[in-house]
Amino acid sequence: MSALKLLTDSAVKAWKQQIERTDELFAGMSDTDLEREVAPGRNRVFYLLGHLTAVHDRMLPLLGLGERLHPELDKEFLTEADTHTTSDVAAQSLRASWNEVNARLTNAIESLAPEAWLERHTAVSPEDFAADPLRNRLSVLLNRTGHVAFHLGQIRLTTK
Amino acid sequence: MSALKLLTDSAVKAWKQQIERTDELFAGMSDTDLEREVAPGRNRVFYLLGHLTAVHDRMLPLLGLGERLHPELDKEFLTEADTHTTSDVAAQSLRASWNEVNARLTNAIESLAPEAWLERHTAVSPEDFAADPLRNRLSVLLNRTGHVAFHLGQIRLTTK
């Protein structure tokens, strides 16, 4: 295995580990559990489930891996803060979107050639990328791996 | 810049970003703020400051970068859970250790050659490493970057 592939495989493994840990946590929670706030007055787990799904969905075009699957989630789970009231989205539907988005995304990520991780992501211009080659696909993956870990730490507080 | 170096630089950048974000949060908190629990009955920020310092201190020998600086922190902040009572360690001293450990560690990390990130870490045997070459230094860095993000998400809940 090439040195380059070993490095990108390590990063993909770290991503998958965080997704699996988060997935297990959500799967072990009832729809009622999803209504819990991670701390008094802060986001509900339900909101974070939608938030993470929307952020991961946006990674598909950001990494140049295809069209988004659920842009309709942005308004409630990205643009707006948690309302702490009943949502238009059913918990069952949100869980299905979470699984669908991560499956599609992780599958595409695993298919990327090592060299492709060094290419620019789609939110940076060719000029800006030339000035800072660290604004590559891998940095997006590492950043989003940190993002899911950040919220996982919060969600974990609602469980024993 | 070689492809290998671009990849490892991206990972080091992600580590430094999480450390900086956490550092800013701690620096903006008074010693009294450190006594806050991240959620009712859960770890205090003070405990997490000690916990992260101990975990990062252990990365020095784990990555083969030198001896630990503060093994005395393990008992209170790793082996045992948060007692939610007065500590033997003063907040000022704990803050100094946090800064000292991260400075030493990040400095050593930045000096590592790209190829060195693919070598085994010291907690895996040569045999086990031969069977799974992803048990390399880079995986330790990525794992600990996720670990600090996990707790950063929790500490963030104690601030506005």
Question: Can you characterise this structure?
Answer:
Two copies of one chain form a homodimer. The first copy, chain A, has 160 residues and is mainly α. Helices cover 59% and strands 0% of the residues of chain A. In chain A, helix 1 (3-27) packs antiparallel against helix 4 and helix 2 runs antiparallel to helix 6 (137-155). The relative contact order of chain A is 0.19. The interface between A and B is large, with 39 and 39 residues.
Q: What secondary-structure arrangement, pairings included, does this model have?
A:
Two copies of one chain form a homodimer.
Chain A: H1 3-27, H2 45-62, H3 74-79, H4 91-111, H5 126-131, H6 137-155
Helix pairs in contact in A: 1-4, 1-6, 2-4, 2-6
Quick take:
Chain A has helices at residues 3-27, 45-62, 74-79, 91-111, 126-131, 137-155. The first copy, chain A, is mainly alpha-helical.
Proportion in β-strands of chain A = under 5%
What general outline of chain A do the C-alpha atoms trace?
A: globular
Query: What is the number of helical segments of chain A per DSSP (H or I, 4+ residues)?
Result: 6
What is the chains' assembly state?
A: homodimer
Structural class designation of chain A:
mainly alpha
The helix content of chain A, as a percent range, equals 55-70%
Compute the number of strand runs of chain A.
0
Order of helices and strands of chain A: HHHHHH
Instruction: Note poorly predicted spans of chain A.
Output: none
Round the Cα radius of gyration of chain A to an integer and report it.
Answer: 17 Å
Q: Kindly report the greatest chain-chain contact and the residue count on each side.
A: A-B, 39 and 39 residues
Through-space gap between termini of chain A: 42 Å
Main β sheet profile of chain A: none
Look at the structure and give the mean pLDDT of chain A.
96
